[in-house]
Structures are given as C-alpha cells and as structure tokens.
C-alpha cells in the first residue's frame, strides 16, 4: 500500500509543484519578483530605521539600519524590540516584556525556554497590535525565511500610527492615509486574536499527531502551509485501505477543484464588483493588492482554504476567503461604507486623499498592467483546472486499473481455491494409492514366495538334470570301458614359423572328425575323412589338450593302469604334446608335467582317506635296447622288461624315484631329456631317435580299510616313423631309423592282431610292444595321441598314420580292471607263495634222494623236472611272451623243442602260447 500511496502522493504533489513552478517562472519573467523585492527592501529599511530610532539597542544587539530579510527577522525574533517599540508608541500596551540574555548570541537559537519566552513576547505584541486594529503577522513569520513582508507591514503600520499619534492624534487614524480610529474598535471582521495566534503557533509546531485525517481538505491546507504536501498525502493514505486510496485521492482532487472553481468565481465577482471602485480600492490599498497578488500566485497551496495561515490576506482580501471565512464583497463594502461614514476627516486628510487620488490617476497605467496580470493569472488558473481534470482522469484510470487488479486478485483467489481443492483430491488419491501399493506389496511378497518355491523346484530339477547328464556321461564311459576301446585323439600341428602355409593338407576339421585332402588324386580319393574320439586343431592349447586327458590320468589313482602314447610321423608334434617345447613355460607344459601335477593335487586332496606313494621311472628304447634315462652315474645300462612282476613294475632295474612336487618332476624330466638320444634330421632338427617312456607307479593305501590300490601309467613318446629317403639319414641315424621303423611296424602288427581279435598277438617282436603289452592287451585304459603335419608333402604319411590310428581306435580291449588287493587276497597270495616254496623244497629233496638211490631215475627225474619245469615253464612260457627271454630260453630249449617254433613262426605252436598269453593275462589279473 505504501508504494501506491507514495506514487499517488508524489504524482499529485508533482502536478501542484509543477503548476506553481510555472507561475513563478512567469512572474520572474516579467521582472515582478525583482520589483517586489526592491519595494520590500525599501520598506524593510524604513521599518528598521524607525525601530532603531525609536528603541535603540535592545538586548545587547543592534538592529542594522538596512538589514537583510534574515537580519530583520532575527532581530525581531525575540519580540523584545517589538514590545518595546509598541510600549513607546502605546505605553503599557505590553505590560510585561520578557527580556532575554544581554547577548542573544550567547543563547542558542534553539534553546527551548528562550524560544518559548520569545513567543510570549511576540504573542503579547501581536495581541496588542491586534487590539489596536493594526495589521499583524504570524509568530511563525519570525521563524521562517521569506516571511518578513507582513512583519514589515505591521511595523510600518505601527510607525504610521506612531506618526499619527506624534502628530497629535487628531481625527481618526487611517492606515495608509485613511483615518482609522483606534478607539473605534475593529475595522475589519476577523477572528479572535487568540485564535489567530493559536493557528499560527499550531502550524509552526505542527506534527503529524495534530493533523486531522478526517478531512482531507483540512489536511491539504495544513500540509500546504507547512510545505510538506508529500508527507501529508502519505500520512493520509497510510492508514487507509488499498481500495480506499483512489477514492480518497479523488476526494482530495475534487475538493481542490471545487476550491479552485469557487475561488475563480469569487475572484470574478470580486473583480467585477471592484471595478467601479477600482481606483479607490486598489489605489488606496497597496498592501491589499500585494496580498492579492501573493494569494493568486499561490492558488493551490495558499488559497482560501489555507487562509488561516495568511492573516494579512484574510484581513485585506475577502475575495480570497470565499468558503471558510465569512468575509465577502458585501462585508468589505460595508466596512468601506463604515469607513466612509467615519468621523469627518481634517483638511489635511482631504488633501491627502486628493493626493492619493492623483496618485491613483498616475498609476492607472500600472493598474492596467495589473489587470493584464490578473487575466494571465486567470488563464493560469484555467490551465491548472485543466491539469487537475487530467489528474482526475488519471485517477479514474487508476481506479479502473485497481478494479481490474481487484478482478485479477479475485480470479487468482478462485484459482488458488481450485488448486487447493485439487491438492486435496491428489492427497486423497495418494493415500488410496499408498493403500493399494501396500496391498500390492503383500501380494508381491506372496508371489515372490511362490516363485521362490517354484524356482527351488526348478533348480532341483536342473540339478537332477545335471546329475542325469553326468550319469549319461558315466554310462557312456562305462560302455567304453566295458568295450575297452582304445581312445584316439588326433592333433594337427600348426605350420612352423617360416614354413609355406598357403596349401594345407587338412581340408576340414571338427571336434571328432578330420578330412585330409590329396591334391594329386581326383574324385573321392582326393578327400579322406577320419573319425576319432577327439580332434584338436592346430590352435588347440596344451591346457585344452590335457583337459580331455585329465579324467583318464586321474583313474590311475583309483588303481587302473593307464597308457598314453604319442604316435605320428617325425616332426608332427609328439614330443611337443607329451613334454612341451624346448623351452618349457607354464603354458607350454606337456601332458607329462600336467598329469603328474594333477596326481599330486588329487593325492593331497585325498590325503585324509588314502595315503599315496608316487614314484617314477624314465626309460627309452633306443636301437631295441632299453635304457634308464634317470641314471645319474652316466653309464647307460641295458635293462630287461619283465611282464610277470607281481608289483606291476616291468623294468625293475631302472631307477624308481619317489616324487611329491612339481619341481621334483621338472628336475627328473630335465635329467631324462638330457640323457635321451636326440639328433637333427632333415625332417626335424631335434628328432627323437628313441621311444621314451615315463612310467608313474602309484600305490595308494586306504587308511580305513587297509585296501591297497596300485596303478601304473605309461606316458610314451614314440620315435617318429620316417621315410629314410626323406629324412636323408645315413650311418647311425639310418640304423636308428631302421630300428624305429621296425618297432613301429611291430606295434602295427600287434594293433592289427588286436583289432582282428587274433588269438596270437606278437608282443615280443619288439621291445616297444613288450613294454606296451599290459596297456594294449591288458586291463589298462589306453589313449593314443595321433599327430599329423599339415604340410601337403606329408599327406601320404598323414593318411597312413590316420589309417593306423583308425585301426587302433577299433581295438576292444575289454573292461579295464582295478588293481585292488584286499587283505584276504593278500593272505591267499602269501599262502600260495609259501606253498610253492614248500613244494619246491620237497621236490628238491626228493630229487636228491632218488638220484642217490637209482641212476635210471635221473632220466625220470629229468622228465619230472621237465614237468615241473613245465609247470615253471608255463610261467616261463609266459615270460617268453613277456620279458624273461634269457631265463626262458635255456629251460625251453632244453625241455621243449617246440619252443623255437613258438617264437611266432607256427600258428599251431602259436595258439597255445597265445592262449597261454591270454591265460597269462588272466592269471596276471588274478595275481593282481
Ligand atoms: N602343437 C604345436 N604347436 C606349436 N609347435 C609345435 C606343435 N607341435 C609341434 N610343434 C613344433 O614342431 C616341431 C617338431 O615337433 P616335435 O619335436 O614335437 O615333433 P616329433 O613328432 O616329436 O618329432 P620326432 O618324431 O622327430 O621326435 C618342434 O619345433 C615343435 O616345437
């Protein structure tokens, strides 16, 4: 509200100020102001000189002879000079003059007590002067600058009165030359002097508390007098309601306008009525003219409504007080008449009147000017009216705007109400939604519970499915085991660095089959496909290769015999698969290392239930000689292979080294590699010139039952078959190649026999077949890695190799059996052994006894020996098929002439051996 009030007040004030300012500018344009100033100065000097002359120095301070307006005002401010001079003129007029300090400068102007006392003086002076019927002024005129004119007038009137009195006081005294009897009482209708003073005083000390807000026009007059129009408007509006402001402002303006119009009308009437007596009225009342002029130059601020602040104006011009004061032209006329019927004037007075008339005549031109000025003032007034109308219009517009704003506020209010209603509805919806959410949560929880149960069932079913799958796999393996098929994995070597690799003999390859291309052939001969248990591409890693081998390796710990052997053409990657590259890295480690590491970790896992003893042998068959690769004394001993060993060790003379860590294995492998016969050939710069065999012997004792499990694993890296024309070997290398090829050929024969389920299997045709007899024809689990090279020039050997592998994979060995000795079997074995020993001892004793009693019996004995030998020979015969050829040869040659034929020459003789071999195998199984 404050801002709007201020704006309204300011706009109103600015309009008024603007008009006043324009008026002043016009006045100054005509030099009126300067003229008035000159006139005022001369009158002031006159008054000052008279005062000085009459009272001299009063209150310790002299009044200058020609004081400035300020000096004049300040000089009389204490009222002492005024009271003194009045007492001189009219002794006793002011009974008590309050004297101030001798030096008024010593007391600050603002000292409250002094000021109050001074007001007392001034008040007394003004009352007295009023009583004398002389012109007065207002106490506040002494306080404010620019207000000395009325003081001067009053002083000069007193002077005139004094002069009149000094002149004898005859006749009636008249201000300005017109006789005016002091004793005749009041010559002008006026309010009481007390009221006059109080009005003056109240304005001088007016505060906001003293201002009535009930009547805006009154406030207007008050404020205009105090010069704080802006403050007033603000004050009026401060306590009003927003919607009342335009109405109040409108009321102020309309009152102002009414006042203007009234005044304007009054002025016109006044002028019209004054015109016939213009010469007398105007010429005889210079003071009145001044006042009129002053009054009309301040139409708004100091108009008739503000008359209370202009006693002089009230006194002199009724026309300026049409509303509040009762003075009017009629009154004025009456007074004039009263004056006219006053006591007769003296001759001098008449003279003076004549002079005045003359003066009036001479000043007629000035009157004309005055008339023009008045007209101009009227025009100005009309302009002010127009401005006021514009202001009114502005106000009306503002009222309209206010109404519009009020409408908008109402709209907003209804909008806010709607919003509140919406919010309530939303809150309702929210609470409903919350409830629904809670219900949903409960339902979801239930659903989740149900889903959880179902999931659990599914998981159970899934695990069951996994179990079934596992079972299937087991069953498949069991079928494989029962059939005793030799597993065959095929691995294709990648092209070696620097080799031309644009043409590849391997056409197609997947997990279980491989197709070899023969570009030289056409038609269906150009492609040959083979199927194996597993086919590894050239990119297969060592780890991938081993992962498929791992289950087989682990079965050693369960008491099975396992044989893994690498077969292939020279340079096809056999050594790489079994041992790894020349520089062994963790990723490059071959099956040998990985298998042993795996055995170690499993045995550690089972250490609480089974105690394992792991030992290794490493031998090679070089030029048909068995050599110990773990020999540390540098001597290469020729070793024998025995297949009837009860402890499963076929080469008992070879070093059997216990191992328990990977580093042990690495150490042994390095030793074996160093001892192995390796040479560079045209096909392979590090060609193995021997078959090497790493044999792992494991014995596990069940810590609970005492059952002993024995497993044996042969990890064989065969020497590569080579076409000597291609390998370009001569001398020792050629001899090696011949032996290698011969042993591989013997292996091929054994495989063929086994594949054809021949009754005779020629194991003893080579050391290699003798060594692998248990694995190829026994209860072992056997895996062959068949290696091929991708080079096209090796295609013939590749196809031949793969055909051989196919034959191997068709071999059915029968179910592998666990080498498990229960304690009862052990006992029985021991009993058999002791009985055999006892029988042998008895036989020996009997032999000695019969030889000593009868020489003929020696031949019988020999025959008996032969039987017994037969009996032994049966075992020996097994040895013939197996290992103990030297032991076997002597008794066989001596006791069984057909033995020679049994060396694979005659199928007839071969059959019982073969059966014996099969029986031996069975016995061996029984023995185990
Ligand atoms: N899978 C393979 N990845 C990378 N290189 C291989 C792979 N197989 C073999 N080689 C490399 O081929 C070369 C011949 O391999 P390796 O010596 O193992 O053949 P081999 O069949 O043992 O030969 P030989 O019968 O003459 O002893 C070696 O340099 C070997 O590192």
From TrEMBL:
<feature type="binding site">
    <location>
        <begin position="568"/>
        <end position="575"/>
    </location>
    <ligand>
        <name>ATP</name>
    </ligand>
</feature>
<dbReference type="InterPro" id="IPR027640">
    <property type="entry name" value="Kinesin-like_fam"/>
</dbReference>
<keyword id="KW-0493">Microtubule</keyword>
<keyword id="KW-0175">Coiled coil</keyword>
<dbReference type="GO" id="GO:0003777">
    <property type="term" value="F:microtubule motor activity"/>
</dbReference>
<feature type="domain" description="Calponin-homology (CH)">
    <location>
        <begin position="41"/>
        <end position="163"/>
    </location>
</feature>
<protein>
    <submittedName>
        <fullName>Uncharacterized protein</fullName>
    </submittedName>
</protein>
<dbReference type="GO" id="GO:0005524">
    <property type="term" value="F:ATP binding"/>
</dbReference>
<feature type="domain" description="Kinesin motor">
    <location>
        <begin position="485"/>
        <end position="811"/>
    </location>
</feature>
<feature type="region of interest" description="Disordered">
    <location>
        <begin position="329"/>
        <end position="377"/>
    </location>
</feature>
<dbReference type="Pfam" id="PF00225">
    <property type="entry name" value="Kinesin"/>
</dbReference>
<keyword id="KW-0547">Nucleotide-binding</keyword>
<dbReference type="GO" id="GO:0005874">
    <property type="term" value="C:microtubule"/>
</dbReference>
<keyword id="KW-0505">Motor protein</keyword>
<dbReference type="InterPro" id="IPR001715">
    <property type="entry name" value="CH_dom"/>
</dbReference>
<dbReference type="InterPro" id="IPR027417">
    <property type="entry name" value="P-loop_NTPase"/>
</dbReference>
<dbReference type="InterPro" id="IPR001752">
    <property type="entry name" value="Kinesin_motor_dom"/>
</dbReference>
<dbReference type="GO" id="GO:0016887">
    <property type="term" value="F:ATP hydrolysis activity"/>
</dbReference>
<feature type="region of interest" description="Disordered">
    <location>
        <begin position="202"/>
        <end position="221"/>
    </location>
</feature>
<keyword id="KW-0067">ATP-binding</keyword>
<feature type="coiled-coil region">
    <location>
        <begin position="388"/>
        <end position="485"/>
    </location>
</feature>
<dbReference type="InterPro" id="IPR036961">
    <property type="entry name" value="Kinesin_motor_dom_sf"/>
</dbReference>
<feature type="compositionally biased region" description="Polar residues">
    <location>
        <begin position="863"/>
        <end position="874"/>
    </location>
</feature>
<dbReference type="GO" id="GO:0007018">
    <property type="term" value="P:microtubule-based movement"/>
</dbReference>
<dbReference type="Pfam" id="PF00307">
    <property type="entry name" value="CH"/>
</dbReference>
<comment type="similarity">
    <text>Belongs to the TRAFAC class myosin-kinesin ATPase superfamily. Kinesin family. KIN-14 subfamily.</text>
</comment>
<dbReference type="GO" id="GO:0008017">
    <property type="term" value="F:microtubule binding"/>
</dbReference>
<feature type="compositionally biased region" description="Basic and acidic residues">
    <location>
        <begin position="839"/>
        <end position="849"/>
    </location>
</feature>
<dbReference type="InterPro" id="IPR036872">
    <property type="entry name" value="CH_dom_sf"/>
</dbReference>
<feature type="region of interest" description="Disordered">
    <location>
        <begin position="839"/>
        <end position="928"/>
    </location>
</feature>
<feature type="compositionally biased region" description="Polar residues">
    <location>
        <begin position="886"/>
        <end position="918"/>
    </location>
</feature>
């Amino acid at each position: 509200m404050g801002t709007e009030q201020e704006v309204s007040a300011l706009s109103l004030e600015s309009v008024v100020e603007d008009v006043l300012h324009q008026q002043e500018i016009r006045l100054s344009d005509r030099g009126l102001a300067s003229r008035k100033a000159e006139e005022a100065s001369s009158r002031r000097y006159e008054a000052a000189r008279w005062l000085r002359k009459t009272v001299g120095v009063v209150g310790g301070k002299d009044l200058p002879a020609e004081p400035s307006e300020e000096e004049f005002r300040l000089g009389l401010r204490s009222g002492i000079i005024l009271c003194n001079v009045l007492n001189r003129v009219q002794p006793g007029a002011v009974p008590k003059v309050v004297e101030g300090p001798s030096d008024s400068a010593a007391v600050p102007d603002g000292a409250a007590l002094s000021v109050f006392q001074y007001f007392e003086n001034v008040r007394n002076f003004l009352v007295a002067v009023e009583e004398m019927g002389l012109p007065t002024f207002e106490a506040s005129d002494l306080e404010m600058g620019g207000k000395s004119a009325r003081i001067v007038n009053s002083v000069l009137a007193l002077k005139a009165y004094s002069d009149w009195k000094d002149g004898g006081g005859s006749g009636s005294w008249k201000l300005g030359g017109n006789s005016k009897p002091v004793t005749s009482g009041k010559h002008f209708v006026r309010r009481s002097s007390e009221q006059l003073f109080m009005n003056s005083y109240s304005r001088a000390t007016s505060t906001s508390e003293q201002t009535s807000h009930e009547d805006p026009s009154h406030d207007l007059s008050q404020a205009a007098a105090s010069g704080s129009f802006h403050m007033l408007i603000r004050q009026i509006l401060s306590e009003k309601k927003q919607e009342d402001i335009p109405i109040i402002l409108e009321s102020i303006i309309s009152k102002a306008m009414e006042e203007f119009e009234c005044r304007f009308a009054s002025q016109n009437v006044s002028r019209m009525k004054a015109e016939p007596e213009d010469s007398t009225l105007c010429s005889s009342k210079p003071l009145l003219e001044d006042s009129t002029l002053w009054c009309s130059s301040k139409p708004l601020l100091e108009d008739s409504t503000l008359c209370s602040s202009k006693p002089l104006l009230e006194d002199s011009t009724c026309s300026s007080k049409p509303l509040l004061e009762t003075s009017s032209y009629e009154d004025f006329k009456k007074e004039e008449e009263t004056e006219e019927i006053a006591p007769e004037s003296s001759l001098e007075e008449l003279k003076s009147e004549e002079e005045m008339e003359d003066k009036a005549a001479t000043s007629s031109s000035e009157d004309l000017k005055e008339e023009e000025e008045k007209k101009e003032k009227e025009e100005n007034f009309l302009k002010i009216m127009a401005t006021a109308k514009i202001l009114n219009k502005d106000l009306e517009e503002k009222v309209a705007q206010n109404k519009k704003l009020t409408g908008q506020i109402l709209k907003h209010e209804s909008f806010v109400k709607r919003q509140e209603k919406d919010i309530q509805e939303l809150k309702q919806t929210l609470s409903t939604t919350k409830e629904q959410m809670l219900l949903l949560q409960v339902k979801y929880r239930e659903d989740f519970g149900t889903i959880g149960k179902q999931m659990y069932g599914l998981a159970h079913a899934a695990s069951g499915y996994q179990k079934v799958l596992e079972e299937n796999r087991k069953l498949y393996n069991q079928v494989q085991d029962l059939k005793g098929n030799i597993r065959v994995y095929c691995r294709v070597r990648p092209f070696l660095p620097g080799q031309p690799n644009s043409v590849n003999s391997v056409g197609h390859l997947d997990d279980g089959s491989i197709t070899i291309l023969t570009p030289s052939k056409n038609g269906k001969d150009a492609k040959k496909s083979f199927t194996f248990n597993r086919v590894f591409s050239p990119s297969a890693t060592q780890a991938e290769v081993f992962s498929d081998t791992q289950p087989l390796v682990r079965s050693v710990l369960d008491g099975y015999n396992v044989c893994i052997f690498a077969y292939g053409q020279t340079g096809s990657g056999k050594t790489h698969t079994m041992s790894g590259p020349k520089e062994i890295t963790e990723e490059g480690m071959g099956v040998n290392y990985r298998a042993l590491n795996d055995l170690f970790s499993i045995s550690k896992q089972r250490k609480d239930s089974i105690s394992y003893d792991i030992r290794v042998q490493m031998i090679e068959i070089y030029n048909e000689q068995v050599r110990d690769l773990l020999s540390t004394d540098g001597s290469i001993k020729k070793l024998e292979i025995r297949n009837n060993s009860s402890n499963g060790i076929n080469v008992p003379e070879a070093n059997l080294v216990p191992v328990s860590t990977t580093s042990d294995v690495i150490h042994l492998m390095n030793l074996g590699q160093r001892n192995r016969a390796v040479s560079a050939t045209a096909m392979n710069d590090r060609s193995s010139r021997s078959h090497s065999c790493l044999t792992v012997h494991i014995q596990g004792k069940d810590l609970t039952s005492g059952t002993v499990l024995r497993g044996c694993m042969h990890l064989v890296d065969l020497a590569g078959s080579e076409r000597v024309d291609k390998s370009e070997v001569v001398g020792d290398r050629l001899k090696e190649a011949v032996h290698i090829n011969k042993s591989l050929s013997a292996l091929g024969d054994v495989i063929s026999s086994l594949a054809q389920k021949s009754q005779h299997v020629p194991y003893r045709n080579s050391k290699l077949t003798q060594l692998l007899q248990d694995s190829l024809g026994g209860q072992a689990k056997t895996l062959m890695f068949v290696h091929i090279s991708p080079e096209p020039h090796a295609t013939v050997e590749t196809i031949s190799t793969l055909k051989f592998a196919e034959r191997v994979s068709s071999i059915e060995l029968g179910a592998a059996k666990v080498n498990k000795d229960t304690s009862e079997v052990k006992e029985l074995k021991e009993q058999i052994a002791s009985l055999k020993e006892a029988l042998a001892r008895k036989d020996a004793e009997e032999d000695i006894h019969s030889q000593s009693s009868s020489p003929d019996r020696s031949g019988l004995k020999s025959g008996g020996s032969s039987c017994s030998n037969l009996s032994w020979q049966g075992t020996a015969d097994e040895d013939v098929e197996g290992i103990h050829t030297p032991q076997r040869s002597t008794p066989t040659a001596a006791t069984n002439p057909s033995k020679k034929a049994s060396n694979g020459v005659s199928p007839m003789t071969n059959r019982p051996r073969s059966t014996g071999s099969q029986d031996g195998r069975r016995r061996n199984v029984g023995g185990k």
